[in-house]
Design a protein that fits this description.
By secondary structure, the protein is of the alpha/beta class. The protein has a domain of about 200 residues: NAD(P)-binding Rossmann-like Domain (Rossmann fold, 3-Layer(aba) Sandwich). Helix content is about 40%, strand content about 20%. The protein is built from ten helices and twelve strands. The chain has an eight-stranded mixed β-sheet, sandwiched between helices. The protein has a two-stranded parallel sheet with strand order 7-12. Strand 1, helix 1 and strand 2 form a beta-alpha-beta unit. Helix 2 packs parallel to helix 3, helix 4 packs across helix 6 and helix 6 runs parallel beside helix 10. The longest helix has 25 residues.
Length: about 300
């Protein structure tokens, strides 16, 4: 059995991906910060900040999948912005140095990235993988994140960076936050409502990772975003429809959201369209191409 080592395997995406890879016959092993975390898979302790990596963690690694990273859905204080950055960039650097030291050469390294690399802005551009990284906070984080991933090519590894949009799932994640006020009959469109909301169903995201594992032509950066371009206004009203609710409140003004969320408010108030054409051209088929069908699956 080919060993796939995963960081961040106890998170929303990691749990589903680990299970899927196991079902497909891979030997899944995971990196954990604490042995208190329950898992069906063999786990190894690691702590990039303290330079800790349990013996045997990297042995016989066929593919390394790097999903670890602090959530961005928490108020962006200066100290927390450092945590967002370090949990992605420094952790990748640590594993790279350990693989160098132990003479480990994976066939492939697949790293999570984010559609935020294009910047938190609302524009008429449909961003593709050829577009440069933005100069804002998330743009810089993603750029450095991917650069750390790409250095694994020095070990002879194929490297894939999955630029993920907001993940829609049946439990947890962004949808939990989005639907709560609507369920309480106090849901409203944010700001103008014209900002785009790039999204992807969790099953499609997991399948993109599986394709990256099994298809050797997958190499470089790929957008993981559904081909349905929707705005915050459409998103809010579609969620309400599936919950049997009506949006009756006026739009929430931008200044209110900025006051409540601080710098993190850009996640709610800005958004552009993200093209999935590159992964589609590799033969990937989205199971959930339209928001309505995705919400029907995770909400209904």
């Amino acid at each position: 059995m080919k060993k796939i080592l995963i960081s961040g395997a106890t998170g929303l995406v990691g749990k589903k991906l680990s299970k899927k890879l196991h079902e497909r016959g891979y030997k899944v092993e995971i990196l954990v910060r604490s042995k208190d975390q329950e898992s069906d898979f063999k786990s190894y302790l690691w702590n990039y900040e303290k330079g800790v990596l349990e013996e045997g963690a990297l042995d016989n690694t066929y593919i390394f999948i790097h999903l670890a990273g602090a959530t961005i859905s928490k108020r962006w204080t200066e100290s927390y912005k450092k945590e967002i950055y370090n949990s992605r960039i420094n952790s990748a650097q640590f594993i790279y140095e350990q693989m160098q030291k132990q003479n480990i050469h994976p066939e492939a390294v697949i790293s999570s990235s984010a559609a935020g690399i294009y910047g938190q802005t609302t524009s008429q551009t449909i961003f593709t993988e050829k577009d440069p990284a933005a100069d804002d906070f998330l743009g810089k984080v993603c750029k450095d994140w991917e650069e750390k991933a790409l250095q694994f090519r020095n070990l002879g590894s194929r490297v894939v960076c999955v630029r993920t949009s907001t993940v829609l799932s049946e439990k947890g994640g962004a949808l939990e936050v989005l639907k709560k006020p609507i369920e309480l009959n106090v849901g409203a469109v944010l700001g103008t409502g014209d900002q785009y909301f790039p999204w992807i169903h969790i099953d499609d995201l997991v399948n993109i990772y599986v394709k990256a594992v099994e298809c050797v032509t997958i190499d470089g950066a790929y957008n993981a975003s559904a081909p349905d371009f929707v705005t915050n206004k459409i998103l809010t009203k579609t969620i309400a429809d599936h919950l049997g609710k009506t949006i009756w409140l006026p739009n929430i003004p931008k200044f209110v959201i900025k006051t409540a969320l601080g710098k993190m408010s850009v996640l709610a108030l800005e958004g552009s369209r993200i093209s999935p054409d590159k992964i589609i051209n590799e033969g990937f088929n989205f199971a959930y191409e339209r928001l309505d069908s995705a919400l029907a699956d995770v909400l209904d």
